[in-house]
Amino acid sequence: MFGGAALITTFGIVGALYLGAWAFETRSTLTHQRRLAEMLSHAPTQEQVDEAFRKEGTLLLGAADDAASLRVLAERHAGEQSAAVVAAARSHPRTRAYAAGDRVYFIHFDAQGVMRAFSLSSRRRGA
Fold first, then answer.
1. Do 95 and 106 meet the contact criterion of CB atoms below 8 Å apart?
2. What is the rounded CA–CA span in Å between residue 34 and residue 49?
3. How does pLDDT run across 43-62, given as a tens digit for each residue?
């Protein structure tokens, strides 16, 4: 009887912790996505994005101006999500990666240096 109750309690605690972690991850992702979508709606230039992120302490991780350097940048900072980053950047000649808390922002710019798209990746491996 006691063993069954302990087992049910253990599963309940593990389930609650898992659900809490899932909810936090979902909220965090949505917050970052909304932020980047709002930025995209203003069509900022690369210089404006760099300056805004610099002022808030968001670090530039790297830049890519061709397919080979984009693959390297995505593999280094997006890990398992690198293929999605490369696909999102395919029609944009410039990409810059920024460290934003537990996320990496990949901002994709057109040839004139205007933000046209973004990709979002977790900095935690396996996430």
1. yes
2. 16
3. 999 999 999 999 999 999 99
